[in-house]
Amino acid sequence: MKWIFILCLSVSQLIAQTRKPNILVIFSDDHTQQTISAYGSRLMQTPGIDRIAKEGAIFRNSFVTNSLCAPSRAVFLTGKYGHMNGLIDNSPGRRFDGSQQQLQKILGQNGYQTAWIGKWHLQTLPQGFDFWRILPDQGHYFQPDFINMNNDTTRYTGYVSNLISDFSLDWLKKRDTSKPFFLVVGEKATHREWLPDVRDLGAFDDEDFPLPRNLFDRYEGRIAAQKQDMTIDKTMRLYDDLKIGVDYSKPGMYGRMLPEEKAAYKKYYDKAGEEYEKVKNDSIALVKWKFQRYMRDYLSTAKGMDRNISRILDELDAMGLKENTIVIYTSDQGFYMGEHGWFDKRFMYEESFRTPFVIRYPGHIRPGSSINEMIINIDYAPSLLSMAGIKVPEDMQGSNFAPLLEKPGSVKTWRDVIYYHYYEYPQPHRVARHFGIRTSKYKLIRFYYPDQAWELFDMENDKMEMKNLINDPKYRRVIEDLKTQLKETAAHFKDQQALTLMESK
Ligand code: SGN
Ligand code: CA
User: Global pTM?
Assistant: First the structure.
């Protein structure tokens, strides 16, 4: 196994020491690579995100440590796995310890002005930012409340993606221009229940989306997949998710809409309700119909967010900030768009294990760069610190990926194993606890609660992860070797719980 040793200062670090770059991170929620045209998606066009990739770089193999919202945000800010930063799941009562070392605090100590605006989800209030305005918990799409720094909660009129951009641009315009900035724009889109902006309703009505080949997966040989509760068929809700039969006079997410928004929604989804009546007694037709509706809502929500990303880029460039600003678009994790019959995330299978990551830094990253090395969200904090010429604390667990950007293909010592650990069980989707590794060729997963099970996938020949090879004698040597690597990797990242579990069996 190879680990990375960067001994000398890179070019970007030397430059950063003279003039520190601004850093703008657009951090969305549940927005997955399969729906982004820069990643080859044919489902929709995402010109805003694609522009960052075109003018900078796209990481084709970008992963998370734990495919869940709050844990992912904690990883971003600390550069550490959940078992080290203390936040392993979203469960009520689990609170992020904001007093610990975090990216924004280190940047602040090095002259940066820092802000987080939008979805936050870490339960405790942000610490170490000069400014924040956050959605409480998951937040709402229409007329959302935001918590302000004086701890008051205010309801704002508007659609969440537009408001988050308004607040972010406003902060940028009013910031102290004598300092470099670090701004995180925390998007709520594309989180469940996928409520599009009114102007995007019907944007995909002419499309007939291709069904994923494993939409009707029967989960043979994969016990955790058999027992989950996140299918389009059984888990997706008619009222809340598919917007059928909605009573707009009731309080809640629909009740927050303005009268004209309610009218537009009612008109649009009444038509969907008529379609539902035609398919509701045919179980196969019903799943296919729900899949199409889910795609339309999710992609329409993504469309509104992507338009806002274009808007933020336009304004940033118009403010003369293009040259000296690192712009990143990423999400807290990926998502299932019907693959395995699912929505949601959590599993170490590709669709939710991956997350988009594109980065622009004119003059430092060659436009149109495409990076194949495997990065993981523990890398974000150390990489940003390095690019800003700031020493990376030794206890951060990620690696600096800046050298990959300077001369794509020239770094010979990058990691060849990605480590994952997911904890949240049983609520809300009954996905068993598991940890594992992925190499370029294989994925080994150990499920440990409530059931004990191992899974092995050949990632070159079974990209959809349908065939668990763990009991195939042909792979005995491969499995032994991967188990050794899994132990070494868990030890490297100090995951004592995983090590103990492997010792017990
Ligand atoms: C809510 C959703 C779940 C989702 C979690 C976590 N249910 O509980 O479907 O998995 O959030 O999402 S909902 O009925 O409230 O929509 S995360 O992105 O915050 O991790
Ligand atoms: Ca999320």
Answer: 0.96
C-alpha span between 258 and 256 (Å, rounded) = 7
Residues 316 and 342 in one domain: yes
pLDDT digits (tens, 9 = 90+) for 407-451: 877 888 999 999 999 999 999 999 999 999 999 999 999 999 999
Ligand nearest to the CA of 90: 1
Nearest CA owner, ligand 1 atom 20: 69
- Name the residue among 34, 43, 111, 58 with its Cα closest to residue 329: 58
For a pocket test of ligand 1, which of 29, 32, 90 has the largest count of ligand atoms closer than 8 A to its C-beta?
Answer: 90
Long-range contacts of 288-293 (CB under 8 A, 24+ apart): 288/211, 288/215, 290/232, 290/233, 290/236, 290/242, 291/209, 291/211, 291/215, 291/232, 291/338, 292/208, 292/209, 293/242
Lookup: tokens for 62: 């970008």
Q: What spacing in Å lies between the alpha carbon of 494 and ligand 1's midpoint?
A: 29
Contacts of 450 (CB under 8 A, 6+ apart): 425, 426, 432
Question: CA-to-CA distance for 303 and 300, rounded, in angstroms?
Answer: 5
Neighbours of ion ligand 2 (CB under 5 A): 29-30, 69, 332
Regarding whether 79 and 148 lie in a shared domain, the answer is yes
For residue 311, the SS3 value is: helix
83 Cβ contact list (under 8 Å, min separation 6) = 421, 493, 494, 495, 496, 497
Distances (CA, A) of 158 to 96, 153, 162, 164, 334: 29, 16, 7, 10, 27
Nearest to 313 by CA among 356, 358, 354: 358
Domain end, chosen from 295, 313, 337, is at: 295
Amino acid identity, position 420:
Y
* Angle, CA 240 vertex, CA 235 and CA 242 arms, to 5°: 75
Domain that holds residue 268: 220-295
Tens of pLDDT along 256-304? 999 999 999 999 999 999 999 999 999 999 999 999 999 999 999 999 9
Pocket mutation for ligand 1, best pick of 65, 75, 123, 138 (most atoms within 8 Å of C-beta): 138
Instruction: Write down the pLDDT at residue 478.
Output: 98
CA distance 332 to 328: 13
Atom 12, ligand 1: residue with shortest CA distance:
69
Q: Tell whether 414 and 385 lie within a shared domain.
A: yes
Here the CATH number for the domain that contains residue 364 is 3.40.720.10
User: In Å, what is the CA distance from 360 to each residue of 96, 185, 253?
Assistant: 30, 16, 36
Structure-block tokens of residue 423:
């904890």
Distance 197 CA to ligand 2 centre (A): 19
CA distance 358 to 337: 21
Q: What is the residue with the minimal CA distance to atom 18 of ligand 1?
A: 69
